[in-house]
Design brief:
Layout: E1 2-3, E2 19-21, E3 27-43, E4 48-63
Antiparallel strand pairs: 1-2, 3-4
Length: 64
Amino acid sequence: MINSENGYFGIVQPDSDNDLFSFEASSSILEDTVEQLSIDFVTDSIGSSIRLRWDTTQVLMPFK
């Protein structure tokens, strides 16, 4: 979820009434390790996504 409040870190949760939007994303396992957190944009036959990769994990967050 993306919330309009800032300044929260760790376990503390901001007020959900101030959520701007939320989404569900699944993760997948990468064959190669990514040493540093990598965030980029990808486009494929399904559409466009924000891609997060770190260690052996990849998360795709689709957007329109």
